[in-house]
Design goal:
This protein has 17 helices and eight strands. The chain is α/β, with parallel strands linked by helices. Strand 6 and strand 7 form a beta hairpin.
Length: 387
């Protein structure tokens, strides 16, 4: 497998990260970008990364030099013609991706695999640009690709099983954790994770608690690595909001995925989070951020409201065949560092308690975002558990 040449389209953080992973696995890697400045910046950044890795004794200098030599930066898409697998990692715009795939389809050999690193767009729609959609697949890494273990493998209705098997085998050989996901909006992680942000935003808008207190509750009481507002600022509202909006519109405006006007206003104001210096928090270093009310007696209530909504979404993903119970729990622990799998968490909380909680929310708000997944209701009646 190490003899296979890997192509990457897009030299941004995601593309260069995937290139690093493939090169570390022993592959020759060709990275293409239309922007020469971006190519030079990516190459420079990657050399700096390996300088740090060598200083930390993660690699010897000889190993680092060998890895970097395996990566070639190119500004002509036709130079990828000998690649066995090309992974597209450009902007999350369908037409841009389809344009790239149309060209790749015409220049690569018939047995080469075309993959998209999209986080939320339809693989079927992207594959429509290729004459042979059977060789097109989603291979979704998480940022930063060299550090995050999870990779979602997403076949479309047209993807050949042999292509799926080859990709799973290849990415597994890169020492990544793969899960299979159905080609539906958000796949597993970006679908199931929506309530972590949306329900936190809704509680803030309702005046249940302020932003730092909600973050504190989810982090210190719930055990999540970061609070939702901290995480949205880290991801960037230009990314996080757009994913939410994309999932919402692709699900025909299902209220479960409805975006927040609060976050939209931040995006409109250019307050993108860490990358702009200000979002929910001030990251410029020039202003003081509010502190959480750690005596807040409803910390557990904040956690429960977010957690039960997450469990409901995980159960619905299983109900709709988006992934297996194992893959859904694995995706959320390995892809977004949740303290435990949501379906396992449901078993521990008691499925009948989850159903009652969701029904109480629905009774209070009369909003379909709180409708309980039928699978949970059936399991509560039968006394079954997920594991």
């Amino acid at each position: 497998m190490k003899n296979e040449i890997i192509g990457i389209v897009g030299a941004g953080a995601m593309g260069s990260g995937i290139a690093q992973v493939a090169a570390q696995a022993g592959h020759k890697v060709m990275v293409y970008d239309t922007n020469q400045d971006q190519i030079e910046r990516a190459s420079r950044n990657l050399h700096q990364i390996f300088e740090k890795l060598v200083s930390k004794e993660k690699f010897t200098q000889q190993e680092a030099d060998s890895i970097l030599r395996r990566i070639q930066w190119v500004d002509n898409l036709h130079e990828l013609e000998d690649c066995h697998l090309v992974i597209e990692a450009i902007v999350e715009k369908l037409e841009a991706k389809r344009s790239v795939f149309e060209v790749l389809d015409s220049i690569l050999s018939e047995d080469a695999i075309l993959a998209s690193n999209t986080s939320s767009l339809s693989i079927a729609s992207i594959s429509g640009a290729a004459k042979d959609p059977g060789r097109v697949i989603g291979i979704h890494f998480f940022n930063p690709a060299p550090l995050m273990p999870l990779v979602e493998i997403i076949p479309s209705l047209a993807t050949r099983k042999a292509v799926v098997d080859q990709c799973v085998q290849l990415i597994d050989s890169w020492k990544k954790t793969t899960v299979l996901a159905k080609d539906t909006p958000g796949f597993i992680v970006n679908r199931v994770a929506r309530p972590f942000y949306s329900e936190s935003l809704k509680m803030y808008e309702e005046g249940v608690a302020d932003i730092p207190t909600i973050d504190w509750a989810l982090r210190e009481v719930g055990g999540f690595r970061m609070g939702p507002f901290e995480l949205m600022d880290l991801i960037g509202h230009d990314v996080n909001y757009v994913v939410t909006e994309t999932v919402w519109t692709q699900f025909y405006y299902d209220p479960r995925f409805k975006p927040s006007i609060t976050q939209k206003r931040l995006l409109e104001a250019g307050m993108l989070g860490r990358k702009s210096g200000k979002g929910f928090y001030d990251h410029s270093g020039n202003g003081a951020n509010p502190t959480p009310d750690t005596d807040f007696v409803r910390g557990e209530e904040i956690v429960d409201r977010v957690l039960y909504m997450l469990i409901n979404e995980a159960a619905d993903a299983l109900f709709m065949g988006i992934g297996t119970a194992r893959d859904i729990d694995l995706a959320m622990t390995k892809g977004v560092n949740y303290p435990k799998g949501l379906l396992q968490w449901a078993d521990e909380k008691g499925i009948e308690n989850v159903v009652k909680y969701l029904d109480d929310l629905f009774d209070e708000f009369r909003d379909n975002r709180y409708r309980c997944c039928p699978l949970l209701r059936r399991m509560a009646r039968s006394g079954k558990t997920f594991f």
